[in-house]
Please model this.
Amino acid sequence: MLVFHDPRCAEYSRPAHPERPQRITATVPILKKRHPDWTWRMPLEASPEMLLRAHSAEHLARVQAAADDFDADSPAHPGVFGHGARAAGAAVDVARAAIAGELSFSLMRPPGHHARREKAMGFCYFSNVAIAALDALAQGGTGRVAIWDFDAHHGNGTEEIVANHPQIAFASIHQMPAYPGTGARSSGNISNYPVAPMTPRAAHMDEMQRALDKLLTFKPDLLLVSAGFDAYHRDPITQLMLEGEDFQKCGEWLREINIRAGAVLEGGYSDALPELIDAFLSGWSGEAKCSAHA
Ligand SMILES: [Zn+2]
Model:
């Protein structure tokens, strides 16, 4: 497993904000201790050319200026452009590593799947996974990219950016009703699988599998995963029921389908996040124990 990580991603915060540095700083030592053979690599910083495949020049200028908070969830942190560009760059690195046949994960913040072409929102500034998908296509050699978004929230930003793209298919499984309120319907290359609050685990996992199966009908050369862990039953900002072993199962599915795949961290706000990430990655790499800890 190749982990793209830059410690600078922990260098911004806002008091009491759930998208906090500890999500990452608590995860790093656990993965390093349990998986001493995994390779850690500094990600590239996404270039303007990469960012402009998904966003307007005006959006880049607004994030660069970071004059006022973008919304209540998305502060204008000092240096937020660099933080966002490094998280987007790590997603690009993940896609490129996947194409080269490596299992890889981006352990970075900020997340990306709510960032729209023209708007930072929902803790997200740049649409990391969409930028990675568009970069993979621009490199040549990849004909079709699928994006499986199992974060508890609808990947509205990714959806907006990739909608109607003939070489990209997107599927999102998410709580509804919940933030950001979109994702009730499917059309064209977009497949949405809303689940009600308190949906039993088995039914939720059935939707996760349906979404993945739908993407496989697209016959992707590359599968990118928006890996959010906020569908965990103790997550403080959602009302879903998944356990650690469910995220392990998601990893095992990736292993079984045997398509070049890469995963990028989205949400996940409980103190169990390191265990959930480990469960997913261990399931994927084939190192999982019989049952996950969390
Ligand atoms: Zn989320």
